[in-house]
Amino acid sequence: MSEHLINEFFCRKGPLAKTLENFEERTEQQEMAKAVYQALNHKYHLMVEAGTGVGKSLAYLLPASLWAKMHKKKVVISTYTKILQNQLIKKDIPLLKKSIAISEQLNNLDQYQDEPNFYRKTTSAKDTEHLQNGFNNASINYAVIFGQDNYVCLRRLNSAFNHGLFDTPYEYAELETLLRWLDEGGSGIIPEYPEVLGKTQEKICREGDICKFQKCEYYNDCYYFRARKEWLNADILVTNHALFFANVEANFYILPKFDAVIFDEAHRLEEVAAQFFGIEISNFGLQRMLNTIYNPRNNTGLIAHLEISQEQKRTIGQIIDDANSASKELFQYLLNLIPHAETKIRIKRPLNIENRLDKIFTILGNRLLQIESEDMDDDIALELKNVLKRIEGYRMGVNDFLQVQDKNSVYWIETTNLTSKKSPYICLISALIDIADLFRQRVLERISSVILTSATLTVSKDFGFIQNRLGLDKVETLQLDSPFNYHQQALLVIPTNLPLPTDEEKFLIDCAFVIDKILKMTKGRALVLFTSYNALQKTFQLIDKSEFPFLIQGEESTLELLEKFKKDVASVLFATQSFWQGIDVPGEALSCLIIVRLPFDVPDDPRLEGICEKLRANKLEPFTTYQLPNAVLRFRQGFGRLIRNKQDRGVVCVLDKRIVTKEYGKQFLNSLPRNLPITFSIETIKDFFESEAMV
């Protein structure tokens, strides 16, 4: 496929322009698309930083789609957020298919006599043949892949009704509503179900270890296997980072065989892999698992529905009680290790404590095996098998955590609800310190072309930080600036009269005063980003709340908050963590972005501690080699929330003066758009918006 073909697809008279209202030709989009195609065609790895507004989704979807179709290949597109995944599925892919279809697949070229011809300029007969194959009947196929537990299993659903495997009338009503949805043509994909299933999902979702495959009476109607057929026929597979790494862990068994992968939101890859290949076991999760087996007091759980003797039920009930007791002892012991007024503690060496759960889980597993009989219903036997698998998973997970054996992992205990009357939530967590070797050996060396893209892959225009963190020794890079005119559209305000954030109490008091003044000038319309929920709450208490409606992260779901924020233009959203990236609020509702503090990781974060220790052991300075570049990437993500299209105008206020008073502040400033105006007085905000009104 020659380069001019991509140019003309994205040009002002090309197929995309005929499909997309208010289309704007962008040279950066064309350049990215050509680079992606070359990487796929010549089998090398590529990193592309595409600034906000480049249109990176279409810039990789088009070349990936045509390359896959022309060469009979399969490409995986992996994203971090559901927001982007939904955008690809519901907006970008349908738009691309329509653009390809509208080009009339070479059937009526004469109508393009007087304008640039997307097809006629092929450089060879082979190109033309490839295009005919690629565009014929708009036949590029796409499929979305969810994890198997996101599909309703008809056998398990019907078994739940047939054997009464529900513990409350509410569960029964939930399953009846789900069944009606399926009967009315529901997709069988649980994320598309309009209601929330909660823990009932565990009883009716697909579980690979207990699947009957072709022997199942529901096989021909199975939602999961229907989906797999679509996957096998697809040229492009859309999935998420977590499922991609599940596929890596399963030795590439979960996803169909593919030839290349494109990671969008690639700046989140290290975080996802570090968590996925770690441990996460909570006291609540363990208790819920035991209750699904049997709760002798309520006579609920799987055992309650089995046709076994009361003596057998009493025996299993006693073992379950012992397991609950041992679990409470263990988690209480671990909770007591956390210092007073703290919420977490890192575990650096093996915990030499009696783990009664190990023996009890072994006894429980053996007892459940004994009750399995030849005349037991197949569906019940499979549910029993699933229970045994979960027991073993918890047993091994707890043992691995207590033994603290992996030198490339960090282990810690974390808790919440310490001040409430509810039982505290206690979680045992481990995460990888370094994923570079894993990513290199199990991804880069096994897949011929790995393409990583994001709006934020560089620090001071350098890809080195993420290259090192992901083991990308051999990779081509391309940096494309945003096409937006930041000189006209944005203003960076850094008030330097605030105290340093190190004096948090005084800093937050003064920040609240400045935020009040800013909001009056911007008439609300602001997103205020914090680095901790504690600082958010303290500042919110000090804010004047009489003039604008305020939205607080945590009070409602992310999607609900975003919808309210978009609809009520004068509203102000106080947020942290997840709102620094992945949200899209174009238009007047987000006219002011306030970054309260530079987004360095908290120093007592266990994984950060582990990373810093490893860097020091390798004679590297942690602040400059990890903490600073990581903060710069997060800062750039936060900054990117403001200007989302060429019509947006707005102000970014950074209340942390270290960005100009510390030498390392240059790293943050040098990572922002070159033509961004900077001022040090908040009074200029009023002038900025008044100039907008005059225009």
What can you see in these coordinates?
The chain has 695 residues and is α/β, with parallel strands linked by helices. 46% of the residues lie in helices and 12% in strands. The chain contains 27 helices and 18 strands. A seven-stranded parallel beta sheet has the order 3-4-2-5-10-1-11, sandwiched between helices. Helix 22 links the parallel strand 14 and strand 15 (572-576). The radius of gyration is 28 Å and the shape is globular. The two termini are 45 Å apart. Mean pLDDT is 90; it is low at 104-125 and 131-138.
Task: Quickly give the structural class.
Answer: alpha/beta
Kindly provide the radius of gyration, computed on alpha-carbon positions and rounded to a whole number of angstroms: 28 Å
Tally of DSSP helical segments: 27
| Uncertain segments | 104-125, 131-138
The number of distinct β-strands equals 18
Helix fraction, binned, reads 40-55%
Distance between the termini: 45 Å
Q: Round the mean pLDDT to the nearest integer and report it.
A: 90
How would you sum up the major sheet? 7 strands, parallel
**Physical arrangement of strands within the biggest beta sheet:** 3-4-2-5-10-1-11
Cα shape: globular
Assembly level? single chain
Strand percentage lies at 5-15%
